[in-house]
Batch of 4 targets.
Target 1
Amino acid sequence: MDSKKYLDDISQIKDLMNRSSRFISLSGLSGILAGVYAIVGASVAYFFLRPEPNAYITLHSWNFKILVAILIAVAVLSFVTAYMLTTRKAKKNEEKVWDETTKRLLVNFFVPLVTGGIYILIKLTSQHYGLTASLMLIFYGLALVNASKYTIGNVKYLGYAQIILGLICAAFPGYGFWFWVVGFGILHIIYGSMMHLKERKA
Amino acid sequence: MGLIDNINKLFDHRIRLGIMSILMVNEEVDFNQLKELLDVTDGNLSSHSKTLEKAKYITIQKSFIGKKPNTKYVITQSGKQAFKKHIDALEHLIKSQE
C-alpha cells in the first residue's frame, strides 16, 4: 500500500467538494461599504427625521415614507456594490460568478430575508413598531447563516452576531435605532475589514 | 479484520471518486456541471456514472428541458453511507502508516 495515493484521493475529494459547492467569496470591501451606507442612512434619519419627544411616527406621515426610502436605498446600494465588487474579483481570479451555486446562494439568502421583510411590514400595518430593528437584525442574521453554506469565508459568524444582537435588542425596547446602527453599520465594517485584510494577505 | 476491508473498490478510481465527492455536497448536479468539474469526456463520465448507478449509490434522472436532454445525478442514502465508510477507511490507512 502506498499512503501517497490515499492522501491524493483525500485531497481530490476535498478539492472537488469545495469547488462544486461554494460560491466564490464576497469581497470584503463590499462589507465595509455596506456598513458605511447604513451609517450614512441612519445619520440622515437621525438628524433630519427625529420625531419630537413624545411624538409617534405614523404610517402615512412623510417622515415614515422617507425612512422607508432610506432603508430601501441602503439595501439596494449595498446589494449592487456587493454584486459589482464580487463580479470584478471573480473575473480577476477567472472564476465563474453565475452558476448553480450562486443561484442557490441567492435563494437561501432571500428566503429568510423576504419572509422577515413581509413579517415586519405586516406588524407595521398593525402599529407594532417596537421590534422592527430587532426583527430586521434577526432575519438578516438568519439569511446570512442560511446562505453561508454556499460561500467561502466566515459570513456565518457575521450572521450569528446579527442574530444575537437582534435578540439583545428585543430585550431593550427603545434602543432599536442604536442596535440597528451597530448591526448594519459597525458589524459590517468590522467584518468587511477583516475579510479585506485576509484577501490582501492571500 | 484487515485494514483494507473497508476500502471500497468502486471508489478506487479517480472519476468515480470525483462523482461521489461532488454529489456528497450537492443536492443534484447535471451532466455538464459534472463534466466541467471533473474535466472528463462524455463517454467516460457516463460509463462511470452507470457503474455507480448499478451499485445503487447514485440515481440518474433523465428528462428534457425543451428539446435538450437533461441528465441529473443524485446520491442515494446507501451511497452516502458507503462513501463515508470509504473516507474513514482511507483515514485509518493513512494514520496507521504514519
Target 2
Amino acid sequence: MLRELYEQLKGRFPLGELSEKRPDLAFITLPREQLRPVLLHLRDQEGFTHLVLLTAVDWIEDDRFQLTYLLHDRQGARDIGLRVMLSRQAVIEGAPMESIHDLWPTAATYQRELREMFGIDFPDSPGVNEDFILEGWREIPPYRRDFDTLKYSNETFAPRPGRESQDPAQHMKAQLYPDGA
Amino acid sequence: MAYQADRSQYPSRRPDGSLDIDLSSGKYLKLWQGPQHPGITGNMSVELTVCGDEVVEGKTHVGYLHRGFEKLMERRTFIQCFPIVCRICVPEPDFNEYCYAAAVEELAGLEVPERADWIRTLILEMGRINSYLMYLGGQAGALGQGVIGQWTTYVRDLMLDRFEELSGARIYHMFIMPGGVRDGLPDGFDQRMEETLREIESTLADVKDVMFQNAVFKKRTVGLGYIDPAIVDQYGVTGPTARAAGVAKDVRRDQPYLVYPELDFEPVVGQDSDVFTRADVRRRDLLMSVDLIRQILARMPRSGAVMAPLPNVLHWKIPFGETYICGECSRGEYGYYLVTDGSGYPRRVNVRGPSYTHAMALLERLIVNCNISDVAALMVSLHTYPPEIER
C-alpha cells in the first residue's frame, strides 16, 4: 500500500530509499529541500493530516542528525515517516533547519524541544529559544550522544554517604548467575 | 458560558503579532497557576497574564518532573528499560509497557502468544478505567465537587486490588514485558473482577446523577473550552478530546492492535466539544471499557503460553531498524518510536504522549479569554499528565 504511494511520490519529488516496516508503516529518506513540498503534498493531497511526532536521532559516528517527521492518515489507516539527514557538524556550527510550525502549529513545541535537547535550530519557530524543560542549562545539549550522563552526574551531584553504587548489568548478572556461569 | 463579550482585542498586538502587555500600566497582572496548586494537573504550571478576571495570555511551563527517561534508556539494555518505561505515566503506566514491548518485539522478530495478547488487552482496559476514574474526580474537584473524587477513588482502589492480585503491584504493574506477559490470571479473578465492574457501574450511575445533572457543573462547563474540529489535526489532538469534537479518532478502531479486531465496540463520540462533552465522552468510554473487559474475560483462552521464549536478555542485541507503535490510551494516541543500531542498547526511544500536544500548544490557545476561575476546569478537561511531556 505504501510502496504505491512511494512510487507515486517518486514521480514528483526526488526521494531517497523507502523502508517498509509494516503494511501500515514505512519510512522514506529525502533531501531536506524536498521536505516542505512533500509534507504539503502528503497533508493536502494524500490525507496525512496528523503530525504524530517530530524527533531526532543522533548518528554521531556518521556525523549526521536524523530528523523524523511521522505523519498519520486516518482514512487510509497508515503512517509514514519522513527522514531528513542533517550534517551534524553543520548543526553544531549553527546551521538552521526550516520550521514547519506554519503547517502544524503544534510543531513549534517539538522544535523547541529539539533546539534544547539536540541543539538543532529552527529560527522562525515561535518561542524556539525559550527554555523548555531545562532551565539554566550550561552544558552541550543533553540528548546528543557525546553528552556523558555519568560524568555529568558524578560532577554535579554528591553521592549520599553510606550509599552503595552498583553497575546494573553486573548486579543482574550476579543475581541471575550466582555461580558465575 | 458565563461571559459572552469578545474581548480578544485586548491587549493590542504589536506589528510582529505578539501581545503588547505593559505590566507597569497596572492593567495586567502575572499569575502563576502551579506548580503547587490544587487546580493543576500534576507538576506543571501555567503562567497567566490576566486583565481583570480574564486571561489574556497563558504559557505552559514544564520541567519539574524531568528525569531524562529517553536518555536514560540509551544507556540501558533492552530488558533494563522495561522497569523504566512505566514511570513515564503514573496513573496509566501500562501503555508504556505495551508500546515499548511491542516495538522491541517487532524489531527483534518475536511472536507473542495469543493468550498474552488477550491479557495485554485486559490490562490496558483496566488501566484505562483507573485513569478515567481519576480524571472524573479531578474534573469535578476543579469545579468544587469534592465528593465525586472520593467516590471514584474508592472504586479505583477496587480496580487497584485487581491489579495487585494480578501483578503484585498497585501502581507500576510491570506485567507486560517484551515477549508477552508475566503470568496468567489468578484463580477466581473473573468473579472478583465482575464484582468490581458492578461497583464501578453503580458508582458511575451516581456520578451521572450528581455530577452531570448538577446545575453548577452544567452551567460552568457547557460551552467552556470549545475546540473547533477544524483544528484537531493542526494541534495534534487525539483521543476523547478529539472524539468530543465529533472526530471519531480511536486507534483501537482506526489501526486495530492486540485483540481489538475481535471485540465488539464503537468509538464514543460527542458533538459540542466543550468541557462538559469531554467529561461525558470519558464517562461513556469508561462504561465501554467495562463492557470490553467482560467481553475479554468471556472469550479469552484459558490455557497456553503467555510468554515467547526470549534470548539471553543480558546479551540481547536487536538488529538495526526503527519502528513506531501506538495505542489508544485514556488521553489519546500513545506511541513509542524506537530506533535500534544492532547493539544491546536502544539507539533512540521517543515517547509520544498525548499531553505533549494537548497541554502545550492547545492549552495555550484555549486559555485565552478564559475566566481565571475556569482555568483549572479547562486544564483538567484536556486530561494531561506532565511526565509524558518531559520524559
Target 3
Amino acid sequence: MPKRTDIESILLIGSGPIVIGQACEFDYSGTQACRVLRDEGYRVILANSNPATIMTDPEFADATYVEPLSLEVLTGIIQREQPDVLLPTLGGQTALNLAMELIESGVVDKYGVEVIGADQTAISTAEDRAKFRQAMIDIGLPVPPSATAHTLDEAVEVMERIGLPVIIRPAYILGGTGTGIAHTPEQGRDMAAHGLAASPISEILIEQSIAGWKEYELEVMRDRADNCVVVCTIENLDPMGVHTGDSITVAPAQTLSDVEYQALRDAAFACIRRVGVETGGSNIQFAVNPENGEFVIIEMNPRVSRSSALASKATGFPIAKIAARLAVGYTLDEIPNDITEKTPACFEPVIDYVVTKVPRWAFEKFSGVSGVLNTQMQSVGEVMSIARTFTESLQKGLRSLELGRHGLNADPAEAAYNSLSDEELLAAAAVPTPERIFQLEALLRRGLTVAELFEATKVDPWFCDQILQITEERAALAECDFDAMTPRAWKRAKQFGFSDEQLGYLWDVPAAEVRKARIAAGVEATFKTVDTCSAEFEAETPYHYSTYEDVGEVAPSDRAKVIILGSGPNRIGQGIEFDYCCVHACFALSEAGYETIMVNCNPETVSTDYDTSDRLYFEPLTEEDVLNVIDVELRSSQIAGGPGIAGIVVSLGGQTPLKLAGMLPKGLVVGTSPESIDLAEDRERWNALCARLDIPQPAGGTAATADEALAVADRIGYPVLVRPSYVLGGRAMVIVYTDEDLREAMAEMAASGSLGREGGLSAERPVLIDRFLEDATEVDVDAIRDMYGEVLIGGVMEHVEEAGVHSGDSACMLPPVHLSEATVALLERHVKDIASALDVVGLINVQFAVKQFGIGAADQVFVLEANPRASRTVPFVAKATGVPLVKVATRVMMGSSLADLRQEGLLGNRANGDHISVKEAVLPFNKFPEADAILGPEMKSTGEVMGIDLRPGLAFAKSQIAAGAPLPANGTVLMSLADRDKAAGVEMARGFTGLGLDIAATSGTAAALSEAGVPVAEVVAKVGEVGTNVVELIDDGRVQLVVNTPRGRGSRADGDHIRRAASRNRVPLLTTASAGLAAADGMVDWARHQLRVRTLQEYHRGVTSDQLALEL
Amino acid sequence: MIRPAALVLSDGEVFEGEAIGADSPSGITSGEVVFNTVLTGYQEVITDPSYAGQIITFTYPHIGNYGVAPADHESRRPFCRGVIVRDMARRRSNWRSTGDLEAFLVNQGIAGLAGVDTRRLTTHIRDAGAMPGAFGTASESDLRAAAAAEPGTDGIDLVATVTRSESEHFTSTRDGGKPPHRVVALDFGLKATIVRHLRTIAHVEVVPASTSAADILARQPDGVFLSNGPGDPEAVAGAVGTISGLLGEVPIFGICLGHQLLAAALGGETYKLPFGHHGGNHPVRNLATGAVEITSQNHNFCVADSSIPGADITHINLNDHTVEGLRCRDLPAFSVQYHPESGPGPHDSRYLFAQFDELMDGLHTTEPGPAQGQLLGGATHA
C-alpha cells in the first residue's frame, strides 16, 4: 500500500524536556520522523518545548511550536493549524499521554483530527496495567499471577495460591511506600498486615515475584498490512528487579535457544496485534525463569522508546524513520533498507557483533540518595559499544562511560574493593548498584566461582563466565613480559577489549608506550561495518566500529575530512545541548563541502544517527579510540590521494572532547587553541588577563588547606563560593557563610573526604574561593569571534535566580529585561575584549554578576568566568534569535570570517520582534525523594524548556507550564522565606493576593507580611511548633504553590521538609525570591492575557508587541 | 591448549584460527564453505542433513552459548563437514541444555575452526561465491592442495549419503475431530521438525530416497511429502523419475530440495545461486495475499523463474526476487523453497502444513494461505 494521499498536514508531538527515563532518544526519533514526513511532502507541524533539540530547528518542520506540552496549548495549536492527523508515537510517554488527553477531552473529534500510529484503544490497552493484563490473559499469554486482598486471611490465601516469593504493594500509596518482597510465610503475613494498614482503602496487591528472572526485550514493528518483524532482541545482564533503563543490556539475546526465542517472538506478535498497534514500533518486555524457561510478559510500550533507539543504533535499522513511513500508509516491503539500498525493510536484521549498553548515573549529585538500583529508573544517560565479542564490547562500554575507568578493572580505581573481605564484597555485589559489574570481576579474580556469583546475584552464568575470561586473560597478560608480547598475544589481548591504559596498568608502563609497541607489532584496530545483515549484502552506509580482526572496511576517500568529537553519555551538566552543537557542526561542514566524520558513543542522540554525518564511528571518546579513528581516516585519505584531515572539532561537545584536545596531533584541532582554553581555566593567568583588561572580578584566592582557605575568607569576607578547580558541572560547589562551614567544605574535598576519590587537594589542584555576591543578577553571554577579530554577540541572558544558583539550573531571559542598555553595552564590550585577549576562534561563553543599585545608580559588573567553547545555552540562543550560532561558529573555526558568512547568507540578521524567551531548568527531584529539592552552585537539572511570548511574565509562565510546574490561577500560596528575602516576599505576596490567591505562611514570614499589610489567610507551624503543620497542609492538597527560600545554602538548609513535601505532592516549588517575583509577574500577566501560541518561524520573521494589544 | 589452524579456500584465500571440535585424522577437513546468518539455532543448523558436504560458517560471533538439547536435533547426526565460528562458548547456560556444543562436535566427529574473522570470510564468499575449502591443523600447503582437490557440491549426489536405508513409521499426534491422513515422506535429508509438523496432520512413513513411485503408491498414501536435502537437485539419482510417477496420482507437498525436484519433474530448470540463502530472516512474499513472511532458508540451488510448465509461482524472495514457491495449476502439488517448519527460524509460514492437510482432504484448496492479518491469528505460539 502506498502512502496516504488523503492527508496533507501532520501534527507531531515531541517529548519535551530531558528527564530521567525520557531523554534525547526522542529527539533522535522525532528528528527522523520530521525528515521523513517532509520528504514525503507532508506539512509537518511540531510541538515540543525543548529548545536543545534538533527537531525544533526551524528547518525541520513547517511550523515549529516551541510551546509547553499541555492540553490547553496543544488545543490551541490544533485550533490554529487544523492538522489532518496527529502522530503521537514518536514523542515518548509525554506525547502518548497528551494524545490521550486530546482524545478524551474531545479535542481531536471536535477538529476532525485522526490519530495515527496507535489509536485510543491501543494506547489505553497498553498503558492501563489492568487492561493490559486482561488482554494478555485473553489471548493466552502468561502474565505474573496476582490478586488483591482486603484482609489478612485473604492475603494468606492469595499467597498460598500464587506461591512465594511475592511482591506486596499497598493500593493508593505514593512512592511505593510499604512495598516489599516476601520470601517466607512469616514475612508475607507481616508485610500484608503492614500494607493493609498503610493503604487508605485497606487493599494490597499481591503479585508473584519474578525478581531474579532473566529479562528480555523485543523490538517489534508492524505495518498496516499486518506484516510484523522483530528488529532486535535485547538481553539484560541485570536480572529482573532492576529497571531495564538501569540495566547493562546486550544485543542480541545471548542465552536463549531458538525454540525459546521463537516462542517469545510469537508472543510479541500476538501482543502487538491484540493491543492493536496498527503501525510502528513497540517494545515488549519478557521475564524468563532461568530454572525452567517459563516466561511471562511484563509490559509493552506502543511507541518508539529508549530501547528502540538503542535497537536502531545496534542494528542499523532506523525504527523511528520506518515507523513514520508506516504511519502514513507504507508497508514494510515498500520501504528500502537504507543500508543495503537493494533489499526491503521488511526483514529481520541479523548482526555479527555484540552490542552492550551501560547506563550512567548521577547519584553523587544528590546527597541522601542510596544509589541502589530498583524498578524505578535513576540513570541520566547511557553509552553503547559495539565489538565482535561480548568481552570486548563490555570493556569498550565501560571505558566509554568517562568515569575514570579504563575497562573492567585493571585500572587504578579497582583498588576501591581491596579493603573489603570476600564476604563483604559478595554481599555488596548482591545488591544492584552501578558498581556491581566491577565487583563481579573483582570477586572472580579472588577465586570465587561463577556458581557463587550466580547464586548471589542471578547474573547469568554465561555472562559471569565471560567476565571470568577477562579475568583469566588479565592474569595471563600480567604474567607476560611487556617486551615479550607477540603479535598474536597483542591481538588476543585487544580482542578481549583491554585498553592500552589497562595494559599499561598491568605492566606499569605508560599507555603511550603500550600503544607504540603494539602498533610496532602490527596490531591495530580494524573497523567493521554495521550493516543490518551480517555482510550478506553490501553496505552503502559507512557506520563503523572498531575491533581487532584480520581486515577493516573503511573505504578510501579523497575528500577533505573533518572529524567531530561528540559529547559521550548524557550526564547532568552535559546533555543534549552539546549533541545539538555537534550535529549542527556536521550540517554546516557538510553544506560547506567537507566529508564529516562523527565519533560518539551515546546511542540516544541525533549525532549517532548514520544519516547525520558522512561517516559514523561508534566509539568510546578516549585518547586511544579517537587516535585509532584518526589513523584509519588518514589512511583512507592517503590511499585515495586525498588532502587528509582538514580539522578536528573539539569545542562543541562539552568537556568530553575538550579533555582530549591536548592529546591530538598538533595542528589538527580547529578553532580556539587548547592553550587559550587552558588560559581561561588557569586561575592566575585568568586573573591577570582580567586585570589587564580592567574587568572587575569578585575578590578571591586559592587554597590547598583549611587554614589557607580561612585566610582567604578572612581577607575577602563571607559569604564565599568554594569550588574545586578540577571538577565539572559545579560538582561540590558550595556557598559558605561561616568559618565552621568553610572547614567542613574543605574537609569534604580533602583526600580523606567524600570527594577524595575524585582527586583530593594539592598545590596543583587547589580549591578556588571567591567572594559570593549576594543578590547579584547573573548574566550569561554567548558570542562568536572569527580569526580576523570580529566578535558577534549571540545573546545576553539575564538569569532569574540570583548568582549562586548554577547557571544550568537557573531560569534565564533573553533579551534581559531588568538590565539597562548601558549595562548590556558594557557586558558586550567586556565579552569582546575577553574574546580578543583569548584569541578565540569560534564560540565563547562569559558569565557575569551584576549588582544593581536602583534607578540612577550605575550597575556594577563582575566577570565570573569565561569558557571559550560551546555552552549549554547556545541552542536556546539560536532558537530565540534565529541565528544558527553553531553553524556560524563551525565555519568560523574552519577559517571563514563573519563577513564571509554574512555574504554567503548563513549569518543573517537576528529576529527583530518583541518576543521574550525564557529558558527554565527541569529538575529530577521527584525521582530522588530522599534528596533535598534545593538549588545551589552544583547543577542538578537534567533538561530544559523554553517559553516564548511577548511579555516577560507570559514567557515565564509558559516556561513553568512547560517545566511541569504550572503556576496556579487560584488557591493557596505557601510562603516560608529567609529573613533577607522578606522584603521581596511582600512584593510577590501582593501580586498573589491581587489575583485572589490566599497566602499561608510560616510564623516569621506571616509576621513580616502582616506588618506590610498583606493579608495572611493561615499561619502555619513549622515542624516542632504547635498548630497546623506545614507538611500536612501540603500533603492534604491545600497548597497550590510553595515559595520557600532557605537560610544558608547547604543541603541541610532549613525547610527541607517543606520542599520534600512539595516534591512528593508535585506542588510547584520555587526556592529563590527572584523566582517568586518572576512567578508573581507571570501570574499577573497570565491572568490578563489569553493564551497565544506562535511558531518559531513566526517569531524569527518578527512578531511585534502590537499583537498583544490586539489580543487584549 | 590452543591448536593453531587455518582455512584455505580453493581460490587461495587463507583465514587463521584455532582448531576446535573433533580431531580430523589428517588434520584436514574439506568441503564447500557457506555462511549462515542465524542468531539462534546453531544446533538445528549443524544437524540439518541439507548441509551434507558443506562447512558452515556462522556469522554471529558467539556460538554455543546455550549448549545443545536433545529435542533440537534435526537428524540422527550432523552431516556437515565442519563448523567455523568466531568464538566457541566454553560455558553454556540454559535450562534446556544437556551438553556443550563443542563436546557434541567432538562426539560426533565434526571438526571446527574458531577465532576466525568470520566477517571477512563471509564478505569473501558473498563477493566470490560459495567455494570449496579445507581447514585444519595441517600445513598451509596441504590445506591448499586439499581445497583444490575438494569437488564441492555441484553435480554430486549428496542425498545418497544422508537418506535413511530403512523406512520408519511415525504415528500422528493429531488429536480430536478429524482423523489423521497417511503421508509417505521421501527422505532426501529430512529434518525432524518437518516430521513433527507432518505428524500433526498425518501418520507419516518416512521412506528412503530410492523408493520407487510404484512402491510409494502401493502404500496408498493420502499424500506424498518431498523433503529437504543437500546439494544439487540435478544430481539426485532417480528422484525426478519417482516424482513424475507420483504427479497426478497423489497430492504432493515439497520443501527446499523437494521443491527443486518437483520443479524438475515438472520440466523446470534449476541453477546455483552465488552463495545461496542460509539464515532465518529472508522476506518472502506470498503472491496471492501480498503478505510477507519472514522465513528460514537453507539452499544453494534455486528454481529458475518462469521455467516451470503447468505451475504458478506462489512465493518470491524480496531480497533477490528468486522463486520461493510454486503450485501446479491442474495437479494437486505445491512446494516451497524455504522452510515453513522453521527449526530454526520464524513460525510465519506454518500454514503450509494446513494447506497440505486440506489438499489431502480433496478440497484442492484454492485458499492461498492466511490473508494478511491472520498469519498467526492471535496467540498461536505452538
Target 4
Amino acid sequence: MLKMTDVKKVFRTDLVETQALRDFNLHVGEGDFVAVTGPSGSGKTTFLNIAGLLETFSGGKYELDGQDVSNLNDKKRSQLRNEKIGFIFQSFNLIPDLNLFDNVDVPLRYRGFNSAERKKRIENSLEMVGLAQRMKHLPSQLSGGQQQRVAIARALAGEPRFLLADEPTGNLDTQMANSVMDLLKNINDAGTTIIMVTHDGELASQARRNIYVRDGKVSEVNNADISSPAQLSAV
Amino acid sequence: MFGYYIKLALKSVKRNPILSLLMVTAIALGIGACMTTITVNYLMSADPIPHKSQQLFHIQVDSWDPNNAYSDDADSLPNQLTWTDATNFTLAKKALRQSAMGMSGGIIEPAGDDAKPFEASIRLAYTDFFPMFDVPFIYGTAWDSQSDTDREQVVVLSKRTNESVFGGENSVGKTIVIDGRNFQIVGVIDDWQPMPKFYDVNNGGFNETEQLFMPFSLKEELELPNWGNNNCWKSPDGEGYKAFLQSECINTQMWVELPNDLAKAEYMDYLNNYVMEQKKLGRFPRPLNNRLSNVMEWMASQEVVEEDAKMMMWLSFMFLLVCLLNTIGLLLAKFTGKSSEIGLRLAVGASKADLFKQHLLETALIGVMGGIAGILLALVGLQGIKSLYGDFVDDLASLDLSMILVALSIALLSSILAGLYPTWRACNIAPASQLKSQ
Amino acid sequence: MSNIQTNTSVNWEIGPIFRAMLRNKVGAILIALQIAITMTIIVNSVYIIVERSKEMQRDSGIDNKNSFSLTSVGFAENFNAAVTVEEDLNTLRNLPGIVDAIQINAIPNSGSGWSMGLKTQSGVEHDAVGTAVYMVDEHGINALDVEIIAGENFAPTDIGLREVGQVKWPNKTILTKAMAENLFPEIPYSSVVGKTVYINDIDPMIVIGIIDKLQAPWVGWNNLENVMLSPERMDYKGSRYFIRTEPSQRDSVMKQVEELLANSNKGRLIQGMRSIEETRERSYRGHTAMIKILTTVMVILTIVTALGIVGLASFSVNQRKKQIGTRRALGASQSAIVRYFMLENFLISTIGVVFGAALTIALNILLVNTFGLDRIDWFYIPIGMVVLWLVGQGAVFGPAKKAANIPPALATRTV
C-alpha cells in the first residue's frame, strides 16, 4: 500500500544542511490505521508531507499503491494526491468563502467528475459526517468539531485509498476530539487505510499500529488491539 | 496623540513600500491630470479684469439680414457692429466711457539703416479704451479726445514694440514711421495681456495684445486695412473703401463702461431709440433685439473656453476616479493585512475612534504625498500642453498659488474619501477573532 | 451555474468562484468599476483619436508636400502692387524648380480666407450655399495641382484686377465638384458647366469648369470642399503667393525665393514663408495635441488599472496562501491554480466590461450632445471589451503564477 525504503529528506540553506528524514523505512498495509508520534522536530510532519506527495524527497524509494512516485512531475503528483489520498488537517483548512457543499466539492472538481456524480458524492459524504442539512452554511457558522467533520467529508468524498490526518484533533476539545476519532475508526473499519500524525499518545493508542519517529528515523511500537466500533455498517 | 499617529502612519507607509508607492502614484497621476486640465479651463474662463468686469459691456444690435438670423438660432445676434453704428455709439457719449475698436496692421520702419522693417498689429480705438480697461502706462499717456476728433497721427506703443524700435527708452514725443507715414508717439504701455483677451474674442480669445494703438478715426482717414473678421449679409452699396466702411458689413467691436444698473438701463433705452430711428431710415430690418453683455457674460456667450479643454477636463475627472478606486482597493488590501495589529490594539484598550483616527491620518498622509507629487506632475503636464499647443497657451498653462491649494485639497479630500471605507472596515473587526487566528 | 461540468480533466470552477466572490464583493466591485471606467475612457478616446486622424488625413486637393506660400506686404509710398505682382510672378514662374506660382487671396487649410454665398436663382429671397473663394489667375489650376474634370480653365483674358473695397465680381467661375453638387443636387456635376450662379444675391457668374477637389481654408468647416475659383489678381498692398515646386525641391526653392523677392523690391516685406505642410500642421495643431494627450492618458490609465489589478490580486494571493496550499494538497495542479485566478479575474472583468459597455455608450451620448461629436461605431465596444479582458488577464497572470508556486506543504503548516 505505502512503502518507504531509505527515504531521505535534506533541507538546505546557504549555511546549514538539516536532515529531516534519514533512511526512513515504513510499510503500511491495506486497511491499516497507523498513528505516527514523536517529539516536535522529529520529522513527523516531513514524513506526512512526503507521504502525502506534498513534498519531494532527497533520496530513497517511495512506492504508493504499488507505484514508484520518486520522479513524478507536479501534474502527476497532483493527480495522485487527488485520487488516492484524502487529507485531514489540524486546523481543518476549510475555505472560508465557500459553503460546505462547495468545500467538499473542491477535490471532486479537480477529479473531473460530472456534476451529478459530484452532487451524489458530496451529499453522501456530508450525510456520513452528519452535516447534510447544513450544506449551504459557511464554515464560520460551525463549531470546530463540525468543521473537522466537514474536512473529513471532503477527504472521503473522492473515495481515496488512504487518509492522511495531521493532528486531526489538535484544535478540538476532548469531547469533539473523541467524536472525530470515532469517526476515523469507523472509516478505517470500512476499509480505508489511515495514517495519523499526532503528538497525543492517548489518541495514538487507539490506532491499530503505532510508529514512533525520532531524529528522522522510525522506531516502531506495536500496538494493542483497538476496540471494534459498533456502528461499522454506517459507512 | 497626533504626533504618535503621524509616527505610526509613517511606519505603516514604510512597511509596505510598494503598496504605498502604488497608492501615492495613483493619486498623484489622478491629481496631476486633473490639475492640468482644471488649470487650463480655469485660465480660459478666468475673469480678465475682475474689478471691473461687472461694469464693462459689449454691445450687440441686430443689424442683420431680414431673411436670416445671424446664426442658426433665430434669436442670435451679430457678434460685431458695423463701422457706422460703432462710430455713432461712441460719438454719442451716452456711457461713462466708450470705445469702438477694430484691428489693423502696418509695417514699422525703425530709424537707422540696418534696422529691418517689420509688420505690426494695430488696435484702433478711442482714447477711452485706456482708462476703461485700466491699461497701465510706462511712459506718457493715452492720446486726448481732441486727437480722436482731429484724426491726428498719434500712436501708443506696446512695451515690446518700444523695446524693439527704441531700445526701451522713453520714446514719447518721438516719431515712428508706419506704412510710410509719420506718427507721433504719445505713450508706451506696460505689459498688458488680458487673459482671455476679452475685448476682441472673435479674433482669437487668447491672442497677444496688439503692438500699436491708434485713434479709430484714422481707419477712415488713412483707409487702414481691415484685419480680423469681417462679415457681410449684403454687399456694400458702391465701390471703394468708403463704401465698404459704410456698408452693413460687421467688423467693429464696441465696449462701454456703465457703472450701475441705472446707467445700464438708460444705455439700453438709448440703443433701442437709436435702432428705432435707424429703422425709419430703412436700416435694421429685423425685429428690435439689442443686448449688453458684461465681460463674463460675453465670454460665456462666445464660448471662449475650447471644447477640447472641457472634454479633457471631464476625462481627467474620470481618470481621477479610476485612480481613487485603485487607491480604495489597495487601502483595503493594506488595512486587511493589518487586521491582526488592529485586533491587538483593540485588545489592549484602544477605542475604535482612536483606530479610525489613526488610519484616516495614514490615508491623509498618503493623500498629501500624492497631492504634492500630483502638483509636480501637473507642472509636467502643463509643460506638455505648452509644447503641444505652442506659444499662445503660454499664459494658460501656469500654476498659481490658489491652484496649488486646490490641488492639495482635492488630493487630501479624495484620499480621505477613498480611505473612509477601508478604514471603517478595518476598524470594525472584533478583537477576539483577530487574536484567535494568530 | 455549476452544473455544466462533464467528465473532463479541465475543470471550470465558475460556480464556486462566483459564489466565493459574492462573499468579497467590495474588492471585486472595485476592480470591475475600474475596468468599466477605464474602458469608457479608452474606447471614447480611441474613437476621438480615430476621428481626428481621419480628419487630418482628408485630401486637401493641393500638393501638400511640394507647395509653400508667402506674403509680400508693400509699405513704401511709391509701392505699386499690380506691377510688383506681375514682376514677382514672372520671376517665380521662370525659376528652375518651380512648377507654377500664383497670387492668391487665401491659402487652403491656413485658417483664414474669404467666403461668399452662391445661389442658383437671383434674388435676396433665395437660399445661398456658402463657399470659400480663391482668387487666382489662369495658372491657378496648375499651381494648386487640381484637375479640371469638366469644362475648361480660365483664359488669360478672363483675369480681372480686384481693387480694395471692390464689390463687383467677374462673370466666370470654376467650382469644385462638391460645390457643384451642393448647388445642383439633381444633375451630374458635368452638367453644371454652363450654368449661371448668383453671387451677392444677384450678380451672375457662369460656371465654366469643375475641378475634382480643393479644400477651403477652414479645416473645421462642415463644407470644407465647397470652393469656388474667381479669375482675379488683387491690387492689394499685401499679397499672398502660392508656389508649387518640383518634387523634393521645396526647401531649397523656399530659401532662394525669400532672398530673391526681398532683394527685388526694397519697398515691401516678405514674410510668412511657410510650407503647406507646416500650415496644415498649425491648423491641425489642436488635433495633434488632442491625439497625443489622449494617447498618453490611455497608456497611463491602462498601466494604473493593470497595476491596481496586480496589487489587489497579489494581496488576495497572500491572503489566500493557506487556501491555495490546501487546494494543492487536495489535488489541484499548478495550472489549476493559475486557471483559478485567471477565471476569477475573467468573471470580474466580464462584469466590468459589460458595465463598461453601457458607460462607454453613455459617455459617448454625453459627448455627442455636449460637444457635437459623432456617434461611436458599434464595433469599438466589443473591441474595447476584448482589450480590457486581455489587460485583466495579463495583469493577473503574474500573481496567479506566484499563487501556483505556493507549495502544497503549506497546508500542513500551522500558522
